[in-house]
Every structure is written in C-alpha cells, then in structure tokens.
Inverse folding.
C-alpha cells in the first residue's frame, strides 16, 4: 500500500475514533464531578444529620454542582433536607438551611 494511502487511512481512523474518546473522557469527568459533589456534600451535612444521603443533579448548572442531602436530624426524630451547592472551580460546598418534610410537601 502506498504511503499516501496508509496516511489517509490512518487519518480517517483517527477522526472516527476521536469523538468516541472525547465522549468517554467527558463521561468520566462528569462522573468524577458527581462523586466529588456527593462526598463533599455528605461531609458538610454530617454535622447536622445522621447517615445523610445525597441525590446529585447529574450536571448541575454552568458554575455549580447541586445536590439534595437528607437524613435524620442529630438529636431529633425529624428528617431534614439541605440544598448543597458545589462551586465547580473552587471545589468547595455550601449548605442551605435545614428544610423539614413539611416544608418540602407544600
């Protein structure tokens, strides 16, 4: 096979595979972000609730990762939920105030 044909074939193969590799990388990056959001939100909420559970928005907003963290309030029988906001650049989290089950039903 002439060198030109080999180079053309290689270039076509690379162009075919490149989008798949980029997509896989993006999926991995999103999964890593979701994992970091979950871990940091659970840690932050641990002082207010026992056995917290996080539900992470799959993509969040452009600047922020978002999650709802719920669990039994420490020292009480009530279940509470807090909104957790994760700064994608700084990789830090902030929690909103405690929302009761009654507040979420309205």
């Amino acid at each position: 096979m002439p060198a030109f044909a080999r180079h053309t074939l290689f270039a076509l193969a690379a162009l075919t595979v490149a989008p798949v590799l980029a997509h896989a990388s993006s999926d991995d990056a999103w999964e890593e972000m979701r994992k970091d959001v979950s871990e940091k939100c659970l840690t932050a909420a641990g002082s207010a609730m026992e056995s917290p559970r996080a539900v992470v928005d799959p993509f969040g907003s452009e600047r922020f990762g978002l999650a709802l963290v719920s669990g039994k309030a420490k020292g009480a029988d009530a279940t509470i939920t807090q909104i957790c906001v994760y700064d994608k650049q700084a990789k830090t989290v902030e929690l909103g105030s405690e929302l009761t089950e009654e507040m979420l039903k309205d």
In short: The helical segments are 3-45, 101-105.
